[in-house]
Amino acid sequence: MNLALCLPPLQANLFSAWQRLLQQHPRLRAREAARQLAVSEAELIASRLGIDTLRLRPEWSELLPALADLGRVMVLTRNEHCVHERQGIYREVTLAGNGKMGLVISADIDLRLFLSGWHSLFAVEQDTTHGMQRSLQVFDQHGVAVHKVFLTVDSDLDAWGRLLARFAEPTQLPPDALSPLPAGAVERADNTVDVEGLRQGWAQLKDVHHFHALLGRYQVGRLQALRLAGRQWAEPLSPQALPQMMGEAAAQQLPVMVFVGNRHCIQIHSGPIQTLRWSGDWFNVLDPDFNLHLDMAGVTQLWRVRKPSADGVITSWEAFDTEGELILQMFGLRKPGQTELEAWRTLAESTAAVEA
């Protein structure tokens, strides 16, 4: 990259500290390095400006459709405890809500993009032990990674060069001052919730996509709603049942949908899962087009959830962390207008519930 070097001394010092840390821990990922250096990941990546990183203009309505020209890429979306990686072509992009919402719906890449929270964008060309790694990295206004796109051996490098030339910021400066992470929402006391109304509203759902509106109507969080809905609709399971269920789904070659997201992006895999491996506390799916890395130490609650719809009851398994944040959801593969796969429902219902 030919970059105009405008890096303030503070960022230069941060980059030096990062390199010293990497000498001690060569395999340390940027997210963990940022945590150890007490900065956000966006600030850490910005310390590479003028070296191997370029800041791009966040013009999502033009940039996102242009990603199709890159050819086959790997997209990555994660939260604190789970990483979702999917390979394919970044195509069939649709923007709505005055550019605040985006959809990518294709056979291989399936995303829900909440673009109002997308703040800064970097192109990184990093020389690694496995060769040159090229990526686009999106961060929110708190410096937290939202979504990343990595080139593969099948990507078009000429298209990559054109993309960088087209969207490069004229002045390569770090993002404006980032805002601190907001405090987590304080859950209402259960005795202040209209539990009967919540249960009636749940029973009257016609579309699983209306569930978020139901939570808003009764001012409850997702986990609190599961607790209060009653066992007809939601039952707690042992967290260790999750890898066991995924193993059975793999053995049956059962097509599933795996949702992983954060505040500003949701990424979905649709299809079977095959190669499953443990690595310490991490449970992994290692398939050619789909990788999942789930930190089971972070899964403190697991729920079987049933939602009525015009297509019948839709069953999911939902994993949460100690803060009540949703880590992962799994469904049987289906499209709107289709009933739930009977084999998925049988598998999802085969695990005994536990006491809440």
Question: Which CATH C-level class of the largest domain is it?
Answer: Alpha Beta
Kindly report the oligomeric state of this protein. Answer: single chain
Low-confidence stretches: none
Structural class: alpha+beta
Question: Could you say how many structural domains there are in total?
Answer: 2
Mean pLDDT: 94
**Level of helix content?**
25-40%
* Beta strand %: 25-35%
Radius of gyration: 21 Å
CATH-defined topology of the largest domain: Heme iron utilization protein-like fold
Apparent shape: globular
Number of strands: 18
| Name given to the CATH architecture of the largest domain | 3-Layer(aba) Sandwich
Topology as H/E string? HHHEHEEEEEEEEHHHHEHEEEEEEEEH
The main sheet orders its strands as: 1-7-8-9-2-3-15-14-13
Total count of helical runs of at least 4 residues: 10
Outline the secondary-structure elements.
Blueprint: H1 9-24, H2 30-36, H3 41-46, E1 53-56, H4 60-66, E2 71-78, E3 82-89, E4 93-96, E5 101-105, E6 110-114, E7 120-128, E8 131-139, E9 145-155, H5 157-167, H6 195-203, H7 211-217, H8 222-228, E10 234-237, H9 241-252, E11 256-261, E12 265-271, E13 276-279, E14 282-286, E15 290-295, E16 301-307, E17 314-320, E18 326-332, H10 342-348
Antiparallel strand pairs: 1-7, 2-3, 2-9, 3-15, 4-5, 5-6, 6-12, 7-8, 8-9, 10-16, 11-12, 11-18, 13-14, 14-15, 16-17, 17-18
